[in-house]
Amino acid sequence: MEILICKNGNFDFSIILSGILAAKAGGSKILKAVLRICIWGTFAITMSALAGYIFGVQTT
Fold first, then answer.
1. Which residues, 6 or more positions from 34, have their beta carbon under 8 angstroms from its beta carbon?
2. Rounded to whole angstroms, how far apart are CA atoms 5 and 1?
3. HSE, side-chain direction, 13 A CA sphere, residue 22
4. What is the pLDDT, as a whole number, of residue 9?
5. How many Å apart are CA 16 and CA 38, to the nearest integer?
6. Where do transmembrane segments lie in this chain (predicted)?
7. pLDDT one digit per residue (tens) for the chain, 60 residues
8. Who contacts 49 (Cβ-Cβ below 8 Å, separation ≥6)?
């Protein structure tokens, strides 16, 4: 089983940027928001990939 989560750092950059923007919009601490979005975003992507693997979804 091979799961590709990050290609050329695009995932990392976009999810960190999303955390920063959410923190600025909500008036929260940036580090806390970035960590929360990185952890739960990675979890959500992993679960989606696992569901695709279980049901035999082919992406290539």
1. 16, 19, 20, 23
2. 13
3. 14
4. 59
5. 7
6. 33-55
7. 444 554 555 667 888 888 899 999 999 999 999 889 888 888 888 899 899 989 998 776
8. 3, 5
